[in-house]
Amino acid sequence: MSSQLFTPFRLGQLKLPNRIVISPMCMYSAEEGNATDWHLIHLGSLAFSGAGLLVIEATAVSSEGRITGGCLGLYSDTNEQALGRVLDGVRRYSNMPIAVQLAHAGRKASSLPPWLGGQLQPMDDGGWQPVAPSAVADDADEPAPAEMVSADINRIRDAFVDSARRAARLDINAVELHFAHGYLLHEFLSPLANRRTDRYGGSLENRMRLPLEVFDAVRDAWPHSRPLGVRISATDWVDGGWDLEQSCTLGSELKGRGCDWIDVSSGGLSPTQKIQLGPGYQVPLARRLRAEVGLPTIAVGLITEAQQAETIIADGDADLVALARGVLWNPHWPWQAAGELGAQVDAPPQYWRAPPREFKQLFRDGLFGMR
């Protein structure tokens, strides 16, 4: 029986050669939002992996929206030119479809990178003022962010549109909007972070308003021939917070607006979250959203084994699986999975002699997009 993991799949009009997605993973290695040679080497390596889709890390739509001073941005001409140089280098040797995740960090902005502790970076030490739906700190030991006023809301919504237009000029194949992990649009969704009393807070309809306005504005600006998806945190894992029922309602609203997929993660908004970690612990969330909303769904979270990923697809739990840390540890994870499952992947001809004897049919013939 042929592998389901290695069957093609369409996101809108974009055809993927298999169901493996490389998740957006922050590298904290940009300079003033500009991609560097680090990104050329990093993304170039992942573009040889054999995955079906490569998603560029969370990319800020404004300078204030970066998680750290080293986060990637797409809010200026210089940012656009720098990322374009990286993409030109990657595409010279790989035809892998490439997406970008557009994001605003909200109250989690102005942080130090993880290897320096990840805490809020004070403004007198190179940081900046974070903004959020409400003046509610991410951590009780941190200063509260500035509550956004109407002008901030309009400006940030327009910033998402501007970044999407820059992505279109760079011929990026797809855009994912970041509604997850405690960043700005997730903060608007969750009653734990959103205490507003205006039209952007209170009821579920009001809390969904800005994320849906951002989606609508980007959908209008982003070429309709290219897919647009959303990553959500399906639950805050906190009583009284954002939950799976509300996620299904959001998913249905997105479907009606032309969303092409939902990337189903969870958590990240509250330090009081209670998560029981285990292999595929978020897959049931993806299964529920896929069944109730009817959109193509990406499952994430401790998916590490080939047969595990195969079963997720074969059982209809999700349409695609996404790997993050696992593919950093083993950038050729899709090669290994294809070998174990008796499938084939694309690879540059320089690597065609690499597979062990038992996997000698691993690579498809072809030029892998080289020019």
How would you portray this structure in words?
The protein is α/β, with parallel strands linked by helices and 371 residues long. It has a single domain, classed as Alpha-Beta Barrel (TIM Barrel), CATH 3.20.20. Helix content is 31%, strand content 14%. Helix 6 links the parallel strand 9 and strand 10. Helix 5 runs parallel beside helix 6. The longest helix has 20 residues.
Briefly say what this structure is.
This protein is α/β, with parallel strands linked by helices and 371 residues long. The chain has helices spanning 37-46, 77-91, 150-169, 184-189, 204-221, 244-256, 283-293, 306-314, 325-329, 333-341, and strands spanning 9-11, 14-16, 20-22, 53-60, 98-103, 131-132, 146-147, 174-179, 228-233, 261-265, 297-299, 320-323.
